[in-house]
Amino acid sequence: MTYEEFIAKVSERAGMSREQAEVISRAVLETLAERISGGEADDLASLVPEPLRPSLQRSVRKPALSFGLSAFVDRARVRAGDPGWFTLDAVRAVLMTLRDAVGDKEFRDALAQLPQEFEEILRVTA
């Protein structure tokens, strides 16, 4: 998947502009990298389009932080500049597009490090 395809899919799924999709994609991927192990984040980074790789790569190796879906959405919203259009649907759109980009097995490996509520929001529209 190319960068343009990734952003177009997020834009379509979230019902927002291309520019908004770029902002939320980076914010969600950066938050995901903070939430999962560094090795898993690196694995995902190697499979996404190059312009998105820095969002998944952590410059400092720290243990993954533990927080649930609500805190995930809040952290990503702040990273995106706290826009009013940033919603749970936007997070879902990025995660579903990430699954398309990296493949089911790699995505499931990352999802296994997240609380069950993440799988539930993805199952609703999968």
From TrEMBL:
The UniProt entry, under InterPro entries, shows: DUF2267, DUF2267_sf
Task: Provide the protein name.
Answer: DUF2267 domain-containing protein
Origin: domain of life: Bacteria
